[in-house]
Amino acid sequence: MGRAPCCDKANVKKGPWSPEEDAKLKSYIEQHGTGGNWIALPQKIGLKRCGKSCRLRWLNYLRPNIKHGGFSEEEDFIICSLYISIGSRWSIIAAQLPGRTDNDIKNYWNTRLKKKLLGRRKDSLRRFSGAANLEPKEGTSEVIPSSSGLSTSALERMQLHMQLQSSQNPFSFYNNPTSWPKLQKILETQEGGDHDIANTCSALMPEAPPSPKGELIINPQQNPNSLSSDTKQEDFNNSNINGLSSSSSPMFYGSNIQMPSSTMSSSSFAVPMVGLQSELQDLISCDKILDQEAEPSYGFDSLKEMGLPRDINPIWWVNDFDAQSSSNSWDSASMLQQEGMFQEYLAGYDL
DNA sequence: AATCCAGACAACCGCATCCTG
DNA sequence: ACAGGATGCGGTTGTCTGGAT
Predict the structure, then answer these.
(1) Using CA atoms, how far apart are residues A302 and A211, in angstroms rounded to an integer?
(2) More confident residue, A81 or A240
(3) CA of A134 vs C1' of C16, distance in Å?
(4) What does DSSP say about strands A134-136 and A143-145: parallel, antiparallel, or unpaired?
(5) Which of A161-175, A190-204, A225-239, A311-325 is modeled with the greatest confidence?
(6) Gene3D superfamilies of this UniProt entry (predicted)?
(7) Residue A60 CA distance to nucleotide C1 C1' (Å)
(8) Cβ-based burial of A34 (10 A; exposed 0-12, middle 13-18, buried ≥19)
(9) Mean pLDDT score, A189-203
(10) Which of A71, A135, A244, A340 sits CB 3.0–4.6 Å from A249 for a disulfide?
(11) Protein residue minimizing CA–C1' distance to B7
(12) Torsion sign, CA atoms A225, A242, A197, A215
């Protein structure tokens, strides 16, 4: 026996809402509220709609102070930061952006932001797929997790990490002044050639709150009108980032990162950014990414080809690997061996 | 002008969690 | 403590629109 349907599917209208339906729903809720029962609401006001559909329509479009489109760079930055840190928890991400809905952010990410940040990633994904046991689906660039069990979301997050970390590689496209004139200009104007990430970040984001390196300050109660009633401090406290806790993953949580505390009543806490705020901001704000051939993110095979020594190795997992290992001798081990370690490393997390 | 195609966005669906009796 | 209904969430699909051919 299956679940009882929430409404009579046969007598329920589907598809786009008409202005009349919107007006009915809006005026009723504004006068009487939802009455705490979405299922009963459509019958009360004579709408041939499912209660869930009414709820969605209200939350996403009819509610006051909803913003559509026109995402700012600051919003892009917050979305990306949180996506890297917590993945596709759209309701939590939406809670940090007043007037934005989880659906809007989800759509925005899937249709625009992801492409903007990951760019033409076919090459790098294909390269990366070798290390993570991922295979491009035939005839497409889509990558299907195989034995590694990586989700698409996890893969995207790693890919974004690699892309950002590669910006620290002096040979990287991201460090090419001709590719990133905006960033370069800022760096050059800084006193004494100080390339400190925090300074760069503040130059790129004048309104960003002062914070230690690699932290994005997020206030969990920033958006009291947030759509998702379930979005609470508790969610952050309990969400150990898909199994990556502060103690187990310095990759995500640097030692100086301020973590949410279970006793914390409000205020703010940090979403760790692995010291990559400026690079992320530059990715977001620089249109060059759309116009250039994407720099390959260096996977193991390309590193092998290049024979890169450890000190310029952009691979993001090294931090975590080193933290768990007494040996820091990158150059003494073969790349193949390290690739194996990398796969083990991946298997250790529920990504 | 017609058709195709891809991007953007709205809406739906199924599952997990919460709430209440 | 438990069951069943309500709600929330995230993935997916459907629809519309504008540009390219």
Answers:
(1) 35
(2) A81
(3) 35
(4) antiparallel
(5) A161-175
(6) Homeodomain-like
(7) 37
(8) middle
(9) 35
(10) A244
(11) A111
(12) positive
